[in-house]
Design a protein that fits this description.
This protein has about 350 residues and is an alpha/beta fold. It has a single domain (about 1-30, about 70-339), classed as Alpha/Beta hydrolase fold, catalytic domain (Rossmann fold, 3-Layer(aba) Sandwich), CATH 3.40.50.1820. The protein contains twelve helices and ten strands. The protein has a ten-stranded mixed β-sheet with strand order 1-10-9-8-7-5-6-4-3-2, with helices on both faces. α3 crosses α5 (about 160-175) and α6 crosses α8 (about 255-270).
Length: about 350
């Protein structure tokens, strides 16, 4: 289903306001020793030497390919990013509590079709450093200024979930002079929290419970969250234990500070004015079975605020459809890039 934003009309689906917290508990399939080994394999490389703010650093293998890339922000935070391929750049921003690895299916596919693909780990997430401060949407968007550090032009920005908010806030704060197109996938804008101006949002109690769960036992919480995230609690769902374990691994790479503070950033930030400032062609993809970011209070509203936007609703799409429906999302993304 594809509509221009002027004609965006949608009905609320069953489960639209379901809490992101699923009570199901899945048995852990790996022992403690294996879990520690898994975490060890994902540990980031040592921190880069001090360097000017936003100056990229890298090391090369025998073929001259970049093996590790980082920038250092003005407050001294090291931001790790992957940078593959050549051609027109496509920059990906991931969701919470994940990191750049969540984009592997898209980066491989898009890179194989002649684009330069770049994805960073948000501060406090993955292989980036874990600062106490700056875990807010303004700073996340400013960290995305790695676009300037790499002198990227004619960029397509792609954001999933929290990353969709990051993309909107980046354009809101930094403009679109380097941006050619934008893609919002299962994105949190305009605002997730129920407020006087957003009566259809989720109540604060939902996000308070997420915070409490992260503090109490985030390891188990991330295991539980993976189920509704990928729609594995739906009838006839094809459940992948590997996907769930990858979600858990990425979640556990996030610092407790980053995991906790990012909840406020993705739920309470109002992106309404940022969306109005987006002046480049924008594709909005959202699953009608998304249990984490309800479509009625996100994509259907965003499509009305973003000029020159195209809304495409994915039937049966979960919040994690970049993984569960990778072929479909990849095809839609490539078509938009080539349009």
């Amino acid at each position: 289903m594809e509509t221009e934003h002027e004609n965006s009309v949608g009905t609320e689906t069953e489960g639209t306001h379901q809490s992101p917290i699923d009570p199901l508990r899945r048995k852990m399939l790996i022992g403690g020793t294996a879990a520690m080994a898994l975490m060890g394999l994902s540990t980031s490389a040592s921190a880069a030497s001090p360097e000017p703010a936003n100056a990229p650093s890298s090391r090369q293998n025998n073929h001259g390919e970049r093996q590790m890339n980082t920038i250092t922000t003005k407050d001294g935070t090291t931001i790790y990013f992957k940078d593959w391929g050549t051609g027109q750049p496509v920059v990906f921003s991931h969701g919470w509590p994940l990191n750049a690895d969540a984009w592997d299916a898209q980066m491989l596919f898009v890179g194989q079709h002649g684009y330069r693909v770049i994805a960073h780990d948000r501060r406090g997430h993955g292989r980036s450093s874990q600062p106490w401060n700056g875990n807010d949407m303004d700073t996340y968007a400013d960290d995305l200024a790695l676009i300037e550090a790499l002198d990227l032009k004619n960029v397509t920005l792609v954001g999933h979930s929290t990353g969709g908010g990051e993309v909107a806030r980046y354009i809101g704060r930094h403009g679109s002079k380097r941006v050619a197109k934008a893609v919002l996938i299962g994105a949190v804008p305009p605002i997730m929290l129920k407020t006087e101006n957003n009566p259809g949002g989720l109540p604060m109690s939902v996000f308070d419970q997420i915070r409490a769960s992260v503090v109490a036992d985030r390891s188990q919480f991330f295991k539980d969250l993976s189920i509704p995230f990928y729609g594995y609690n739906k009838p006839n769902a094809k459940v992948s234990q590997g996907v769930q374990e990858a979600f858990w691994r990425q979640g556990m790479q996030t610092s407790i500070v980053g995991a906790y503070e990012c909840i406020k950033a993705f739920s309470e930030t109002d992106f309404t004015e940022d969306l109005k400032k987006i002046d480049v062609p924008t594709l909005i993809l959202h699953g009608d079975a998304d249990q984490i970011v309800p479509i009625a209070d996100s994509a259907l509203l965003s499509a009305k605020l973003v000029r020159n936007s195209t809304l495409k609703i994915i039937p049966g799409g979960s919040h994690g459809m970049c993984t569960t429906l990778a072929d479909q999302i990849n095809g839609d993304l490539l078509s938009f890039l080539q349009s």
